[in-house]
Amino acid sequence: MEQYAGYGSLVEVLKSASGLLELERTSQLHQDVVSICGYLENPNFRIAVFGPFNHGKSTLLNAVLGSRALPIDLIPTTGAAITVKYGSSVRSRIMLVDGTEVYRSGTEVLQQFAILDGNRQMRRDVASVEVFCPHPFLETGVEFVDLPGTNDREEQDNLVKKQLLSADLVVQLLDARKLMTLGERENLRDWLLDRGIKTVIFVANFLNLLEPEEQQQVQNRLRFVAESFRAELPPGFSNLYRVDALPALRARLKGDVGAASSSGLAAFETALQNVVGILQQNRGSVRLPRVQAIASQIQLLLKNKIDPIAHEFKVFDDKYNAKIAIKQKAQDLIGQGFSASITELGDWLALPKLLAKYQADAAVALAENNFKSWQTNNLKKDLNELQIAVVKWLYQAYEFFQEERPEDLSIPLPNEPTITIPPKSDSDDTWSEPGSIAVGGGIGWLLGGPVGAAVVGSVSYLLNKNVQKQDDQIAKESYHQQVAKLCIAATEEYFSHLSHQGLSILAEYERQAEKVICFKVTQEPQEITQKRVELQQWQQGFNQLLSELEKFKISSNYQPYIETPKVTQTQQKSWQQQQRIYTRPPQTTYTPPRQENTAKTAEKKVEPPKQQVYSPPPKTTPSPNPAELEAKFRNWEMDEEIARMKDQMGSPSSQNSQQQPNQNTQVPKSPQSQTEKDKIAHAYKILGLPQDATFADVKQAYKTLVKKWHPDLFINQPQMQKQAQEKMRLFNEAYTVLSNKK
Fold this sequence. Notes:
The protein is 53% helix and 7% strand. By secondary structure, it is α/β, with parallel strands linked by helices.
């Protein structure tokens, strides 16, 4: 006999999955699940006998068992499902709803608990009725269920249907005197087949009460009824038998073998025992189709709950993750810009670079008694520009992420250096030392006259020629050289202090910037989280049921769900993980100068780099190198991209950003007027591009041309500089036209 215990996990999963549906206890599906789970846990092979009331069901069972074990005296009789099992003696057990057990020898107690009352009502306090008989067929692990008659009361019909679902074999009794109508047959067939009940045997009763000439006609009709059902029985067995139930019972009680055989009982019993013997060896083929029918209903209802909510979460999570992705990209871009500006300022503060760039001018300014003015107009100006460039990125982050407000970066300049001029000896020859005439007139003198000029000249000479290292070889220093050395030493100490203090402040500024150049992933509302948990439970229940069905090779029309997790939350990478960058400063009320944004939105006009970036500087400005031009372009592009992302974050259309083509790869729209077409064609020609070029191509071409024709590259070539300025004008116009087109 098949190991029924192997269905334990399937039973648990069925119960769990149906529990997720929160079905009403009175619903048909809930009752079906309870029945099918009890059915799977039942070790016996169950045969249910059913049919309309007064069709002789109890009489047939008594004939098979060879005794009057079941009540057959009242019409209708059976008012409860009576399960007949093997026992060493005939006895009855009644279980009441309140848990009381009534256990009696014989079957007389059935007259009290298992028949309909005077109003043909079933007793509502009876939970189950069992009869035990010492019959060899029952001893093989078979049990019979005598069901109440159908077509009498709806309550009885529901009980019958519930019991049929847990039967391995159904014996339907037909009244040869009054066969079911076509509608009744089709309804019954559909109900049985919808629940996977296909092992059905039809038994015709009362055929002996018909006239001989009618019997053949009725048998033909019975055969049609049986064949139209297409029962799934072992090969070689019919699903239609004739048994005259009452004559069969009388013959069995009398021990009249011939009469029992002529009643059809012997043929039916033989077929029944053989069919059961075969089906018992593979009860999975009988039971599992029932599971499939019930499981498919559960899956469909779960799917109807899951799909709408899963779609809502997908839309919600897609929008959320799109925003997170934009913020992550903005964080990376801002971090890169901040890193570059910090690096630039850090390099500027390096002592060797400060000395190389500023010491000579500083020492001269000190010698000329003009240090304070030089410090304000040169050193402080350069430092402020670098500091503003750093702080700009933190305010970009603050505006984008709306976290804590950043503090400005303030590196103070050291106190103005002072020197004590040594006393002048009258014997000093102020004109005999190298470099004494190196600086021409027109300069304010510290000491006055040609001696002051000689001091200034000595500063330049000593720094440029590194004469200090030859001090031990000079027996006697001139007065102006002594003063020059004092100026040089004082400025070196000044820049050393600036470098040390500035780098220390910058390092702390770096550590604090992370709180600004980052964004916090907001927690979703509690009700959303709870709904997500419910969705996960539904999906898990669905998938577990599907997996369990596959284990028993029960086919399904569904695929497992990829369980909807808590919002994806694109992994937030710190910009420090990509580069050596810094963190946010504390809050202050500092507000840097408002920066002009070079890119408005993806839909608005995209301006080319501001004219001041590429217009010729004053003639005193040194010619930029390619690295400086590249840095300017990098900052411009980052500003443009960040501005575009800000617009995406605030625009309703940004919800579909992942479906929209990228502005850098989007093919521009076709213009409407011929004038516009000509203008655009001319713009492409100026930039040296075909008319089907993408905006990314436009950007790259513009960038390449500007690097080649930047007017600052031709400061010492007036004619070429003028030509470069004209080309820049054309490039800017072309870029603007194509920006508006996209």
